[in-house]
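Friendly challenge for the regulars: who can give me the structure tokens for this chain first? No prize, just bragging rights.
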Amino acid sequence: MTPPEGDVVRRVLQRLVAAPPRVVVIGDVLLDRWWAGSADRISREAPAPVVQVTDRIDVPGGAANTAMNLAALGARVVLVGAVGADEPGERLVALLDAAGVDTAGVVRASGLATTTKTRVVGGGQVLVRLDEGGVPDDDARQSVLDAALAAATGADAELVCDYGLGALDGLVRDGLAARAARPALTAVDAHELAPWAALRPTVVTPNAGEVERLLGVPLAGDRAADAAALRDALLAATGATSVVVTLDRDGTVFHAPEGTGRTLARPAPDSQANGAGDTFAAALTLALACGEPMAGAAAFAQAAADVVVRQPGTSVCTPDALAASLTSGARTLPADALVAALEAERRAGRRIVFTNGCFDVLHLGHTTYLKQAKRLGDVLVVALNDDESVRRLKGPGRPINSAADRAGVIAELACVDYVTVFGSDTPIPLLERIRPDVYAKGGDYTPAMLEETPVVQAAGGEVRIVDYVSPHSTTSVIARARALSDVGSAADD
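First reply, four minutes later:
Bragging rights claimed.
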């Protein structure tokens, strides 16, 4: 993250603490369910994997996920939508209430089945998604409109989330467009934007596919350049004052009265992008409601989206996670937080790779073996010896760089996902807690030489030795630097 973006994030977070805005979210709400477990055999009834379910995770999705993100970032949130009078609906409302979202505007419609998306995950792979749910009738839509109009009174902003599930069709959309008064800021995140043009929104947030459907123009090749060239067409077709086109790995392009600009993303696997658009829309609306101009609001929203694409499943962005992202590409966590984060990664079926070292002066040998270590799994954890343990291991002249500096450098490597610092002479206490799938070491070791090997294997993991880059070592780098320093000093004499 560039320093200006860091300044924006800090400024918005400070404003949220001082005066959290009241935001109304109106839209299609749903429940995301994840059933996860091992898939080690094939059914005799059909050529299908048998999943031994060990985890069942429920999280709010759609507009409910957007509301969760707003609440997690510090906004005062009212959610308006429709659920059925059924178990998924009650579960969804309970999760929202627990997160601090005001659910007074959530209509419980009899005869409506709550929209539910259940993903069955075996061995870390989504094998099937089961979609259930119905479309609200006109009576339910009228109740949604009444709740939306009431909630919008006195609100700082409203965010419409239309995923095409039917809750906002017809009289809800028409009623929102026809009202005499509304909040100063109206944002729309919709799969189909043309029907919302009559609302004259402040900002809309289409993705690349939605732009293509709206304008009938493909975004191919340099998508950012194509989106930038469509400024006039996008503003005209959406009826919006500003448009932010989200391009996943390519960041965003925004068109606002003050001009056109873009943000850059930190790429992540597409499999982890679930809900990132909800986070972006929530953070953009929140930053604009805090008085940030479009360039700053887009940077804030991009930073929040970058946080959630590195988290498993449908996730939310918190101020702590945003603040941590200002200083590193990876997440630098203390042991307790690391263990919790890795348990979530493991539940999502990801293979954990662990390695450790002093990493005092980073060189080619380090980066080569860290990249090789990452290829052994999905998530790479790098544990650094703290300054005291480095001195015990390497002598009184070490470390050259402090633990904070070493962690900051390692965290910027694209192959690293988590960084932590430990104080023992070996990482065995940490290994016992983390129980990695793979323990990777670089150098001229064998597994039998490592006292960590029995600990890793006892927990079901394996020890792998990656390539040793012989001409490169921290000791040799420091020796060469000191020799050059001595030569320079002699020349000065």
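The chain has two domains: 3-325, 331-480. The chain is about 40% helix and 25% strand. Your move, everyone else.
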